[in-house]
Each structure stands twice: as C-alpha cells, then as structure tokens.
C-alpha cells in the first residue's frame, strides 16, 4: 500500500476545525508512482539549478537528468519505480531525446511495426520508433501512450497526452524579471513543488465542479496550471509563448463504412478479441472487476476464451465482484453466479459492506493535487480492489468501464441523429422516428428547436414551482452554490484557447473526473488500471457511427453491445436491463450512518462558505430533505441519486485539506 509522503508531494496545511472532526493523516505517495516531468528554459537564462530541482534530485523516489541541447536546458524528472502494467522511461535519440508513460501493449504494437527482435528492450523500441517516424510513431499504436519528444534540429519540444486521457498531463510556467521557466508534467504535485504559486485554489473551476457543469476549459483546480485534453499534443519552441496546440487524434474521424448492423457487430467483436489477446501477449495478468452487467461479463468471457486459445493455462485471469448481502437491490452475486456456470470460471465475491461512504472521510482527501473526489464510492472501490488482489504484485486491474460511455446515448441525441441523417429522405427518417418515439416526443423535439422553446421552458418551470412539481431539491445545486465569479485570471491559461464540449473526449460523461478516480486508485494501490473498451481502434469505430445506428432497441440500452455478447454471456445477463446502481449502499452511509458527521462539516466554519462558494444553511436544509428521503425509502428500489449533492461534501473535504 502507500507509504509516507516525501517532500515532493505537498504537505497541505489543515484547519483546527478539520482536526476536531477527523484525525489528520499524512499525504501518501504510492510505492509505484508513474510520472514524468520536464522543466525547460533557454540556456542563456540558466545560472544555477532550481532549489526545488536540487531537492528532488536527493529523493530516493525520483531521478533527475540534466540535459542541454540546442541552446535549451532541460531538467527531466522521472519516477524510479513503475507498476507492472506500464512502461516509464527516457532515452536519447538521434538529435534529441524522448520520455514516455505507456501501456505495455503500446510497446507490443511498436515492436510489430518495427519487426523488432525480442532482445530489444523498451528504450531500444522507443528510440527506434522515434528515429524512424518521429511523433508519427503514435500512428502505429492504439494503446495508452503519453510523453514528450525533443528534436534539436526543429528546436521543438512536443508533449502529448494519450488518446483517451488515462494519463493526466499538465502545463505551467513561471516568469520573473530575469528568466522564464516552463514545465510539462503528468503530476500536479510535481508542478506545485516547483512553483509555489500553483498551490492556490482555482475558485472558478471549483464552482463549476459544485454546479455539476461539464467543464471543457483547460484550467485545472489550481491556479497557474493548464491541462491537456485527450488526444492533444502541445509544441513549445524557445522564445515563443504560449505553446502551439494540435489535436493529433479525434474520436469521431472513422471513415470505414459498414453495410449493415450485423457486419458492424462482427467487426467490433473481432477488434475486442484482438485487444484482449494483445494484453495477454504483452504478458498481463488481469484482475478483472465484474458486475452482473453485460459490459464486464463480456470482457471476462473474452479473456477466458483468449487465455485458452493462446494456451496460457488457467491462472492468467482472476475475477472478483463486490458483495453487498444486506442490500439485495445492489448485490450482483445472483447474476455473477449465472456467469460462472456459463463460462466455467470462478469469480470471487469480496464483501465491502464495512466500507460505507464517509466512514473514513480522509479517503476522499488522498492526493489533493488531483482535485476533489466526485464519486462517493472511492473508499469501497479501493478497498474492494485491495482485498481482491491479495497482495499479488503481478496483476493489473481491468474494468468494463467505457462501454456505457460508448454505447449508451440519451434519446435526444438518438432522435436528433435520426432526423438529421442524410442517407435517406426526410419522409423515411420521420417515419422511422415516429415508429420509435411517437408523435408527442417528435413534436416536443421539433418545438424545442424553434424560437418559442425558451419562453415555454420558463413557463413550464414556473408552473412546476407553483403546483409543487419540482424535482428533488438536492438535484439542483443552484439552490446553495453561488453564481458570482471569483478568483483571478490564470496567467498560464490567458493565451491558450479552450475547446468546444463536442471536441473533448466523452465530455458529456465528465470523463476528466472519472480519470482522476482511476489515478487515485493507481497511486494508492501501486497498480495499473486498464479499460479495454476504450482502446483507440475500438473507440473510433463506435463513435464514428451515427447514434441512431447504434441503438435499434427502444427498450434495452446498449443494444449493439448486447448483439456482440451473443453466445458469450448467459441470455439472462445479455437481455437484462441496465442495473448495477450502488445508490442504496451510498445512501446508507451518506444519508444514514454518517449524516451527523456531514452536518458538522457545514454547521460551523465551512471552507466553501469562507470562499463565498455556497450558502451553508441552504445546503443543510437540502441535506435534511435528502436524509429524510433516504430514511423513508429504505428497502425500496427508488434511489435518491445523490451524485450532485455529494460534490459539495467532497468539495468541502478537499478545500479544508488544501486551504
């Protein structure tokens, strides 16, 4: 597990109030952190190494390499240890150097493209690929790869994030009278150690988090820090600011056409088999996390098939599911038992009922440099993985996450896609839409595109308020979150353009926050996490299709994925409506066992209130309504859906930790 944090990971101050409610804990650093960073400056500015860099050089956990090339000075910083499922390193190349964080399947793909011999190690492979293709080497891979390339002849440093964003990447710079330093890094904590100004909270970004806004801006939770979006490369040249931004990969650029849905399903199944097979060929030993849904069960079934096809024995794959015996609407053991019988492979059940949300609130303040934890399941998910691993250091963690994000699309997008499709006449499109959605739904959609839509929505909202038909108050953060803008303009972001929501990978699914959750688990457990459904060659086929072509069923979500799963999972699972909602277990902790602890956070001094971000009394009233709902609906299937409410609790814990 984790060990005491070194000087590199910031020891944020805490309030007395925090220590009265929760015991203080040290900030932990994983035994297997995987981070890279580079500080760059024009060589004429360099009089001596930064004191912070000198301190990092003395650390046992980080290595620092001082490089001078083409009139530019670099301090390249790398973690000394790496989880088994990842490759992290650097090497000199002809006319420059390169550094990387990548899945081992990335190295496998490059080996194939180079026809490399087995004797070549990771550094040899990366050197050969960059010298052969430059940054174009990334076109020969589909797996996770983030890193940097310096080419002295071009006088350009290229820093890039992987296509789906599994490796968060950041940029910052600091200017003074005599010099200007820039830094690219996969670690916010590293930037904060180098530049103290980057420790100030970005209140505008935090407010958007509290309001549940899908924020596609580049600013992060701290001032002076910008984040790269998935599939982007940033290019820095001496004496030129800011960096030039390019999108080297977009998730919606697949040009391959398919004659029918059955052909598309066959192509996706074939690609998924190849992806699973590649992980085995790259010598992964998966721990696959299974629920009773079609996503994870299909993944495990394919892993078992590929394990047998490759003759790898029976111990290559471990599988586990969470057990909630006291919560029948949450427990998935019934469906997992069906799967075990179908594929002939055991799935361990790990009971995590002792880890209800907010039992250990300090869990939600680990690695505060990543921002507040948006998911109340942080504790029980991490505990589940730790118990399932059983101290087996060889295994990496595999998730079915990604299938929902790719295959579940709301009705508005499906209807819009169908009506706007250009492959058939409008009459045919309208007939198909009417058959699926009915007259009332189509009329509502078409009316919503007219100038009358806005005043009608206002009238509807006023009517709902007058007749008491409002949604649950905890679903509306505008009730307690301030709208007034605060904070300063971020100098590091002032000349860097933002992206439109539709250009940001899975922005509708708050993907950046999901990635931060994986990052916390990876740092704490020292294990790499992998999402086979989100390898680039699979993603671009799915997202390259029109939404209505992926969703033929009017009753079952993810109908295309269910077609792919035919013959691989039991029919009871394949045709099961989407489930796996853990809200009842969350309600037992947040709205039941720990409600007094949560009320204590906001009844006295509140860090969010001190920063004029919330009205504590309004929040407490709203929380009381949520708690009342939880108590009156115990044992019932209806859930409170508290994810938006949770953000304020997590924001308060995080703000106290860093302020």
From TrEMBL:
It comes from the Bacteria. One of its GO terms (biological process) is asparagine biosynthetic process. It is an enzyme of class 6 (ligase). It catalyses: L-aspartate + L-glutamine + ATP + H2O = L-asparagine + L-glutamate + AMP + diphosphate + H(+). Its EC number is 6.3.5.4. Residues 110-182 form the Glutamine amidotransferase type-2 domain. Pathway: Amino-acid biosynthesis; L-asparagine biosynthesis; L-asparagine from L-aspartate (L-Gln route): step 1/1. One of its GO terms (molecular function) is asparagine synthase (glutamine-hydrolyzing) activity. Residues 288-643 form the Asparagine synthetase domain. This is asparagine synthase (glutamine-hydrolyzing). It comes from Bradymonas sediminis.
């Amino acid at each position: 597990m984790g060990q005491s944090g070194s000087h590199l990971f910031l020891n944020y101050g805490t309030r007395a109030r925090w220590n009265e409610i929760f015991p203080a804990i040290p900030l932990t650093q994983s035994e297997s952190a995987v981070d890279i960073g580079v500080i760059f400056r024009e060589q004429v500015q360099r009089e001596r190494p930064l004191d912070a860099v000198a301190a990092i050089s003395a650390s046992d956990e980080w290595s620092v390499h001082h490089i001078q090339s083409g009139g530019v000075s670099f301090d390249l910083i790398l973690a000394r240890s790496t989880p088994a499922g990842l490759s992290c390193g650097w090497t000199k190349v002809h006319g420059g150097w390169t550094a990387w964080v990548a899945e081992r399947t990335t190295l496998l793909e490059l080996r194939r493209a180079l026809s490399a011999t087995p004797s070549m190690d990771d550094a040899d492979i990366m050197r050969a690929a960059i010298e052969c293709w430059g940054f174009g080497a990334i076109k020969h891979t589909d797996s996770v790869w983030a890193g940097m390339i310096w080419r002295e002849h071009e006088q350009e440093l290229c820093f890039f994030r992987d296509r789906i964003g599994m490796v968060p990447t950041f940029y910052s710079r600091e200017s003074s009278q005599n010099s200007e330093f820039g830094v690219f890094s996969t670690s916010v904590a590293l930037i904060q150690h180098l530049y103290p100004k980057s420790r100030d909270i970005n209140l505008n970004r935090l407010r958007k988090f509290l309001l549940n806004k899908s924020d596609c801006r580049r600013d992060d939770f701290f001032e002076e820090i910008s984040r790269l979006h998935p599939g982007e490369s940033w290019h820095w040249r001496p004496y030129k600011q800011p960096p030039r931004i390019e999108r080297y990969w977009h998730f919606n650029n697949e040009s391959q056409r398919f004659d029918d849905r059955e052909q598309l399903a066959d192509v996706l199944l074939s690609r998924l088999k190849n992806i699973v097979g590649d992980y085995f060929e790259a010598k992964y030993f998966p721990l696959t996390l299974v629920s009773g849904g079609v996503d994870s069960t299909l993944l495990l079934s394919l892993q078992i098939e590929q394990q047998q096809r490759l003759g790898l024995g029976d111990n290559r794959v471990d599988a586990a599911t969470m057990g909630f015996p006291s919560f029948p609407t949450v427990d998935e053991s019934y469906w997992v038992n069906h799967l075990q019988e179908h594929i002939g492979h055991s799935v361990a059940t790990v009971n995590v009922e002792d880890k209800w949300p907010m039992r250990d609130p300090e869990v939600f303040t680990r690695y505060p440099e990543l921002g507040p934890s948006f998911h109340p399941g942080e504790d029980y998910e991490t505990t589940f993985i730790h118990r399932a691993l059983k101290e087996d250091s060889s295994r990496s963690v595999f998730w079915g996450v990604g299938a929902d994000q790719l295959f579940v699309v709301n009705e508005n997008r499906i209807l819009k896609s169908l009506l706007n499709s250009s492959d058939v006449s409008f009459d045919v499109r309208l007939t198909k839409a009417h058959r699926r959605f009915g007259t009332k739904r189509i009329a509502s959609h078409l009316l919503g595109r007219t100038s009358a839509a806005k005043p009608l929505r206002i009238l509807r909202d006023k009517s709902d308020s007058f007749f008491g038909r409002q949604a649950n108050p905890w679903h509306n953060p505008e009730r307690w979150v301030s709208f007034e803008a605060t904070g300063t303009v971020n100098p590091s972001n002032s000349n860097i353009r933002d992206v439109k929501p539709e250009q940001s990978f899975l922005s509708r699914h708050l993907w950046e926050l999901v990635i931060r959750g994986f990052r916390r688990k990876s740092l704490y457990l020292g294990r790499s996490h992998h999402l086979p459904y989100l390898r680039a060659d699979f993603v671009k086929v799915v997202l390259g299709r029109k939404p209505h072509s992926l969703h033929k069923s009017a009753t079952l979500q993810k109908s295309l994925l269910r077609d792919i799963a035919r013959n691989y999972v039991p029919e009871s699972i394949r045709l099961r409506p989407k489930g796996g909602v853990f809200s009842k277990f969350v309600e037992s902790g947040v709205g039941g066992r720990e409600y007094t602890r949560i009320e204590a956070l906001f009844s006295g001094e509140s860090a969010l209130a001190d920063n004029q971000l919330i009205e504590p009394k309004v929040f407490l009233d709203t929380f009381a309504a949520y708690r009342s709902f939880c108590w009156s609906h115990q044992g019932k299937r209806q859930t409170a859906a508290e994810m938006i409410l949770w953000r304020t609790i997590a924001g308060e814990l995080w703000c106290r930790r860093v302020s």
